[in-house]
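Milestone M4 deliverable, item 7.
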Amino acid sequence: MGRARKLLRSKALRLLAVLVVIVYLMNTSLLAPKPDGPPQLLAHRGLAQTFPMEGIGNDTCTAERIYPPEHPYLENTLASMEAAFEAGAGMVEFDVHWTKDDQFAVFHDWTLDCRTDLKGVTRDYTMAELKKADIGYGYTADEGRTYPFRGKGIGLMPTLTEVLDRFPDRYLLLHIKSNDPREGERLASILAELPAGRREKLTVYGGDQPVAELKKKLPSLRVMSKETLKGCLLSYLAVGWTGYMPEACRHTQLQLPEKLAPLLWGWPYQFLNRMERADTRVIVVGGDGSEFSSGFDTPEDLKRLPDGFTGWIWTNRIDRVAKAVLPDTP
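Output delivered:
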């Protein structure tokens, strides 16, 4: 009986060893083809003023703590997006908020108080009223002694339609800041008027409810929310080691914190190849997911990426990073 148990245990160990080898070979990036070329760059908010990240929370007025300005652009404006694309961005991210007259204003904060000379939220105003706001009013780099953009931001808050019209062939990432399903429904009605080929270059992320409503109205649109991200990653962790791609991971977008990405089967190249075959875009963001809008903002930051990485990376300083990774950038 003891000999039989030893034999069974030996066979079980051999089978386990074989399984480990199979899992390793299926998921090692050593055997995966590495795509050529530089990383692809996503410019967060366009070319924007940046600020120290320490102590940032959802309610922090970041306009009151910017670094001394190195360029004249304000986030989420047509000019800042144009500058980002000219600097080398392959995609620009921007934020949308509903207005009193049922339009979408392009603006970052939940309230207008921090950056502008208005109070309240965009839903309190018509788009015509928001066009009169000075969106550079609240920016200061010296604790309020000077306001370098005050008076220079009047009329610069764009509508979603203006952005779509200005950049008809560009990749854009739209961020719904609320969790109101009506915003998803309204956004779907706007995007449904675009040609299908144009919608292919758009991705929408944000609250679970508006994103779910948007996906219901426009099933072919690429979207992401906490719910869709969780559904994909949990499914992939369960079965991804086999090479099978769960349905939740198909034709979507994953914004992966750099510190969590190595936990995924096949990271980086097997994973990226699988997601590409599934028509899913992977964007690597900085940190572990708990930091506020963390990205790869300096040439030194880029050293944290896997060698030869050519996927999408999130940056708050497209002007700096593009020069480090794109050979033809002036």
